[in-house]
Amino acid sequence: MLKNWINIFIYHIKNNKLFTALNVLGLSIGIAGLIFAILYWNDEQSYDQWNPNKDEIFLVANKMNPTTYWSSSSAAVGSAIQAVSPEVESFCYLSGDYDDDILYFNGKKVQSDRITIAQKNFFEYFPFEFTEGSQKGALPDVNSICLSEDLAFKLFGNETALGKKVVLRKKALIVRGVYKLDQKSAYNPACVVNFMEEQIKANIQFWGNFQYVLLLKLKNPEHQKQVTNNLEKLYLENLTFRFAKEQGISPKEFIRKYGEVKPVLEPLSSVRLHTKTGGLTEGKGNFQFLLTMVGLSVLILLLSIVNYVNSATANAVKRAKEVGVRKIIGASKYAIIQQFVFETVIISLFAILVSLVIVEISLPYYNSFLEKSLVLQSGQFYLQLVAIFFITVVLAGILPAVYVSNFEPLKVLKGNFGRSKNGIWLRNGMLIFQFGIAAFFIIGSYIVYQQIEHMNSKDLGFSGKQVLNISYKNIYGENITNKDRLNRYNTIRNQLLHIKGVKEVSGGGFILGNGPKSVISYHYKDKNVDGNNIPIDFGLLEMLKIKMVKGRYLNPKFAQDTVNSMLINETALKLLNEKDPIGKKLNWNGQEVIIAGVVKDFNLMNPGEAIPPMSFLHFKTVPWFTELLNNIYITVDPKTMQQTLADIEKMWTKKVDTEYPFSYDFVDKEYKRSYSNYVKQKNLFSLLNIIVIIIALFGLFALASYSIERRMKEIAIRKTLGAETNVLLKELCKQYVVFSVIGFLIALFPVYYLLNKWLENFAYRITISIYPFLIGFTALLTLTLVVVLTRAYQATKIDVLKYLKYE
Q: Who contacts 30 (Cβ-Cβ below 8 Å, separation ≥6)?
């Protein structure tokens, strides 16, 4: 029996090469899209799932205002909460970002940009597998360091790393352990050092200094609520009550004026995708983008399956007599269903193999697109692939098999292929479903395109053309003062100004597109503003062509500009609600400062995010601001750009930094990368739109062929009676036009609702107009008519005698 089924299957493949190819290709594209989405899903969901403590460890997030959450805490919280909450087993402070520095060993130097500063119990919270040493006692003191296998190999080759001495930041450190970095985690450091203890001790009294990431380990995860309540009490006593007393007002009045900090505990198991903060060192996953990819991929697979069902149904017309004969000679409905499901199994297997080839070929581009390193290897993935296979067989195979098995032998052998109305409604419903999905993607991709173009064309409030941003490695250490850092910067600035082609040089403690490095609240009358600190040198705002609305730029001619002058932006001015701010005094972090000017709003972060209130101060005004000076901005004569860059690099590598490679970027290009994720979403939607249209056209072609095949006698009779070609074409296309209109109408609400939700991510967004819908409808109708008219025109050229000779 099986051999007979295979022979019949091969026979029909030879006679229906086009339909078979379309079936396999359509399913392959749909399955490949879902495989890509599954790989991304598995990767994002895998963060910290390997960690046995993931449910007991919580990130202390802090709600600073109704819309802002910080992942950083003050140095005083850890020991204080453990003292009042017996539910807290331990706490661990870590740096919120990786450090970039050089490790030295016997004359060899290795740069690492993934250095984590933590307390000694770091590996109790992230128990990576150790190949040398052990988790216990891995960081017993400030002179200890633990390395990942890769970094250890770069430093020591195949030699044992344990016990060897390396130098980091002029400190001799002993390697206490080497660990594997083969798991996804919120922290995936190349090396870990125990420098945090000293920093915590130095800042233990500063409750208002939110500088460090704090993780708590609870004895029981169910105690999360009690610990949160205790944290709220601590914050109330040490922040609200203390600051209210300093200002001579009641706590209620203080909260009314300035708000209060609210702690939130987030489990480590969900931090990657669901944190309300900006995430930890490995960043925050884009859960919405992840759901979008999976949802659209499932939709495309369903479209592929509908396409297959339509195609299989259309092809069933040619096999009706085969089924009729088999039934006459005794074949049961169940046997016929088995045969057609078997054929679907073979087609699905071929489709999965082709899809795996597509994925393997496209994976490097996909990894580049997502900035990932996904591979087609894991037990979980293969189980998911088996599930996809069975789901595809069930959805794509059962329906056509049951449909064919219900053919009535006498009718099909007489040439009557009429079916029940239920069958007609089912096929028409699937076609309308295809039109609806196609309309959704066409309209949606155009709305996404409009939003990204809106971002690209938005006036950013600054100009980064021909402005270089040089990554500057500042100097740090026990004996390095803020004055030393400022003097070194001024020396470098003067040396750069002597290079031919260099027009202007200035420094900044921020990168456009990346946001601020610190936020400090300031007070004016009864107003409180969380200002994003923008440390600058003279001339930087002018260099970036950032305009002033009121007052003046900071200028070295005014001595107070390095003592107590500050600029604010328009957003901050609105919050202060002061018509004439120039000369007004503010309380900035306990220091009295005077507003010298108001800067026109510009996009500090990407153009989709709201412009925050900003505070502009010269580096000398706040001495510790020099610690944030990591960027030197330069304007260069474009006529001598290449030579000037070469001269800058030569000077830099000889006089500024002999250890690190010279690194620069153009400000405008650097800023565009800040919203590259949104551009990727646009490209993804456009790509999926093309795929959906192709698959939908396959299905439309199959169903149009099926429908026209059933009406060949009718067409022949009409031609015999003198019907003109244009009349026949109109008659054959009419129902498809109606179906495309219905599909378009069905897609209207989902596309408007979902795209409107997507646009809510943008502070500056387009308003959905009628144009995407008009364009979507026109495109859908045009594609429908092109396919159907092409097939219908071929039908009108039939040989009339061929279809009427037996009548």
A: 300, 301, 302, 303, 304, 305, 695
Last residue of a domain, one of 227, 248, 274: 274
Q: For residue 597, what are its two tokens?
A: 């000017």
Tokens at residue 213, please? 């990431």
Query: What confidence tens digit (pLDDT) does each residue in 17-72 have?
Result: 777 777 788 889 889 989 999 999 999 999 999 999 999 999 999 988 777 888 88
Collapsed DSSP state (helix, strand, coil) of residue 617: strand
Same domain, residue pair 322 and 350: yes
Of 2-6, 98-102, 569-573, 654-658, the range with the lowest mean pLDDT is: 2-6
pLDDT in tens, 78-103: 888 988 889 999 999 999 889 888 89
Residues 238 and 339 in one domain: no
User: Is residue 493 within a helix (H) or strand (E), and if so which, with residue range?
Assistant: helix 482-497
Asked if 71 contacts 284 with a C-beta cutoff of 8 angstroms, the reply is no
Rg (CA), the chain: 34
Which of 90-99, 182-191, 369-378, 745-754 has the least mean pLDDT? 369-378
Residue in 45, 43, 29, 42 with CA at minimum distance from that of residue 299: 29
Whether 382 and 314 map to the same domain: the answer is: yes
CA distance 373 to 583: 54
- Do residues 521 and 529 lie in contact, with contact meaning Cβ atoms separated by under 8 Å? yes
Which residue bears the tokens 């409180």?
Answer: 528
Asked whether residue 407 carries a pLDDT value surpassing 80, the answer given is no
User: And the tokens for 377?
Assistant: 């290897």
- Residue 665 domain-assigned (yes or no): no
Give the range of the structural domain holding residue 155, as residue numbers without chain letter: 57-274
Query: Running DSSP on this structure, what letter comes out for residue 387?
Result: H
Q: Which two tokens stand for residue 201?
A: 């001790």
- Please state the φ and ψ torsions of residue 104, each to the nearest 5 degrees: -120, 140
Q: How far is CA 232 from CA 64, 73, 213, 260, in A?
A: 13, 13, 17, 10
In a domain, 593, yes or no: yes
How many of the other CB atoms lie within 10 Å of CB of 658? 8
Q: Say how far apart CA 602 and CA 213 lie, in whole Å.
A: 29
pLDDT at position 420: 46
* Domain presence at residue 448: yes
Amino acid at 392: T
Bridge-partner residues for 166, per DSSP?
Answer: 173
Which residue reads 């051999």 in tokens? 3
As a residue count, the chain comes to 807
**Same-domain pairing of 709 and 805:** yes
CA distance 609 to 607: 5
> 69 burial class (0-12, 13-18, 19+ CB within 10 angstroms)?
middle
> Are the beta carbons of 681 and 415 closer than 8 angstroms?
no
Total domain count for the chain? 4
What distance lies between CA 447 and its chain's CA centroid?
Answer: 19
Report if residue 639 sits inside a domain.
yes
Contacts from 589-592 at CB under 8 Å and sequence distance 24+? 589/520, 589/521, 589/522, 591/564, 591/622, 592/564
